[in-house]
């Protein structure tokens, strides 16, 4: 469904000097520039195009003046992969490549490669359950499957790695207007509400309502920190000080730090 995401931070360590005499210094800028392009070439030569890898350098920093060779150069990149095999290969291939380029320039390099988010993988049974619920509520015309995974990443992937589940996307835009408006009112920024679609119920309201859920709900929720054993925690009213329920019931979960 969604790619895994990793973070790459690279610091090239050289020796500063004057721009008029680069032979007396160890220029980290030229080495860093070579690393940026070499990473892209490496992906196209070593990885299967049908198991894609995306690498984008978003930070490239070095120097303070045009005629001064800096001592260090730094870059940061995001890496997206769609399989565990490609992810593990990248973790080995990237440092190997960068250290080789640094050595060729007579420099040192510090490579920090960190895993961020794992792959988001839906469970087949849970996905079919969600699809059937959507079709029963709104009809088959309101349900579509993504043709390809997205290269974005999601922290919900950690939940799916532990328990069966499915990740769905909700429609959040109105139909395209006949006359395009300014950027602030284009369909991509317009919320889907009953005002813009009065004949259809809001998707989230119907999908998340208790009556539409195909799974059973607990009759009693566990208490925590002395809370009431009913379906919500009561909170005092600001005006009267009386106890009123919140707008939506809250479920209590014991959370362990990992």
Largest sheet properties: 4 strands, antiparallel
Rounded Rg? 26 Å
Shape: elongated
N-to-C CA distance = 25 Å
> Helix coverage percent of residues?
10-25%
In the CATH scheme, what's the topology name of the largest domain?
Alpha-Beta Plaits
State the name of the first-level CATH class of the largest domain.
Alpha Beta
Estimate the strand proportion. Answer: 15-25%
The parts where pLDDT drops under 50 for at least 5 residues are 184-200, 218-258
E-strand count: 8
Question: Could you explain the architecture of this structure?
Answer:
It contains 5 helices and 8 strands. By secondary structure, it is an alpha+beta fold. The chain folds into 3 domains: 4-117, Alpha-Beta Plaits (2-Layer Sandwich); 173-217, no CATH class; 218-258, no CATH class. The strands form 3 sheets. Strands 3-5-1-6 form a 4-stranded antiparallel sheet, covered by helices on one side. A hairpin with a 6-residue loop joins β7 (235-236) and β8. The protein is elongated and about 75 Å long.
Highlighted features:
alpha+beta; Alpha-Beta Plaits; single chain; disordered C terminus; elongated; two-stranded antiparallel sheet; 258 residues
Care to give the gist of this entry?
Helices cover 25% and strands 19% of the residues.
Task: Give the SSE map.
Blueprint: E1 4-13, E2 17-18, H1 28-46, E3 53-62, E4 68-69, E5 72-81, H2 84-104, E6 108-117, H3 124-138, H4 157-160, H5 203-207, E7 235-236, E8 243-244
Antiparallel strand pairs: 1-5, 1-6, 2-4, 3-5, 7-8
């Amino acid at each position: 469904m969604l790619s895994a995401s990793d973070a790459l931070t690279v610091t090239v360590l050289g020796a500063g000097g004057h721009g008029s005499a680069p032979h007396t210094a160890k220029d980290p800028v030229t080495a860093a520039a070579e690393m940026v392009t070499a990473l892209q070439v490496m992906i196209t030569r070593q990885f299967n195009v049908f198991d894609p890898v995306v690498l984008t350098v978003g930070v490239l920093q070095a120097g303070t003046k045009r005629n001064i060779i800096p001592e260090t150069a730094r870059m940061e990149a995001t890496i997206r992969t769609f399989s565990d095999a490609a992810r593990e290969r990248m973790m080995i291939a990237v440092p190997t490549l960068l250290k080789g380029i640094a050595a060729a320039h007579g420099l040192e390099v510090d490579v920090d490669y960190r895993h961020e988010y794992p792959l988001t993988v839906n469970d087949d049974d849970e996905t079919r359950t969600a699809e059937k619920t959507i079709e029963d509520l709104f009809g088959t015309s309101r349900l579509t499957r993504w043709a390809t995974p997205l290269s974005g990443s999601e922290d919900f992937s950690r939940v799916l790695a532990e328990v069966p589940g499915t990740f769905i996307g909700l429609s959040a835009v109105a139909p395209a207007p006949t006359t395009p408006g300014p950027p602030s009112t284009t369909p991509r920024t317009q919320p889907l509400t009953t005002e813009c679609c009065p004949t259809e119920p809001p998707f989230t309201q119907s999908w998340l309502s208790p009556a539409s859920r195909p799974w059973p709900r607990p009759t009693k929720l566990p208490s925590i920190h002395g809370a009431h054993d009913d379906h919500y925690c009561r909170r005092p009213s600001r005006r009267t000080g009386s106890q009123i329920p919140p707008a939506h019931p809250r479920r209590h979960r014991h959370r362990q730090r990992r």
